Amino acid sequence: MSGREGGDRRDMAIRGAAEALRPAMVAALKELVQIPSQTGEEGLVQEAVARLMRDHGLDVDVWEPDAATLAPHAESVTLGSGFAGRPNVVGVYRGSGGGRSLILNGHIDTVEIGDRGAWRRDPLGGDVVDGRLYGRGACDMKGGVIANLFAVRVLREAGIEPAGDVIVQSTISEEDGGAGALAAVLRGYVADAALISEPTNLAIVVAQGGSLMFRLVVPGLSAHACVRDEGVSAIEKFAYLHRGLLEFEARHNGEIAHPLYDGMVNKAPINIGTVRGGAWPSSVPEWLEAEGRAGLVPGESLAGMKRALSDEVARLADADPWLREHRPRIEWRDGHFAPAEVAVESPLVHTLSAAWRRVRRAEPAIEAVTYGADMRHFVLVGGMPCVMFGAGDVRLAHAPDEAIFLDDLVAAAAITATFTADWCGAG
Ligand SMILES: [Zn+2]
Question: Does residue 3 have a pLDDT over 70?
């Protein structure tokens, strides 16, 4: 038998095992979706994850991240009220020796359910309808956690033993900065590569944008509305600054030369998410506070973007008679996301692309995204090459009737298993 035939046979065994495990995968995903796990409340679902990992034959490590250890990174994660009752869960599948190691990461926390009236399906039901499983977290990203876990199970059922260690992670607190993934890196979980199974619609995402969280404080001068011209409206001054920030966004977009971001409508969006100001309908507002998010792309730094935004606000203030004397303030909130990327021409991307091609018999999409995720902790702190790849459409995440296509979930498990066997070496 030639090596090629052996490879084909192995690929077929993996695809067959993934398909045979579909009912178990669906049942496990349904179980996880039925346990709410909004960021901050991950304890209960992690018990179920730990049990699933043990059932799959992994050595399981459960620990609560330590706020003191994370403190030096406070700018990029949310320490909030700590991590009591919010453990990370990591399951290690020990390789037979000699191969490259691999981390398969997913976050278990979800955003809130939101307005239940907007859902047509039970957000905690895990209902399966027309090939989709519905519920909060189904695609972002309990589906990804399940795909990773079952990739290991698929290898076992197919009789394939990876040579390198496979480290399956279910981490907390991604939605507010990724304290869980960072804590896993700092605990020493470092491998030759990492894959995060965020919902990329099966695209291989090699670059993630960053985001900077800021607060803009705008002073005004109060006066009775009947003589409003004697006051200065902080709301009107904010409107001026906001327009200026959007012009800055357009100029910044024009300057970005990263090839993977070419053709995107907005490569580094600036969004004002909250505005509070004023005290009374018939008083000129003397203060306004806006909070926003400014995007950046790989190759740019948080420090550089902070400087650029500060300079822009200062320039806008200099050009306004009131703001020149009464300076607006820009402050930085916690929870920044530094951008991160891995080279398209890297062994990790090559190996994953090749596995993808063999399973799907087509070319994978290689993409960049404008949002921030945990990739940066693996790349920037852990020094590992890292990609994002997973089932699920990000447009269905964070929304009512969140769902995942089960065909894609099974495909993701098969591709991940094939890639794992190739990357780690397998007998
Ligand atoms: Zn996510």
Answer: no
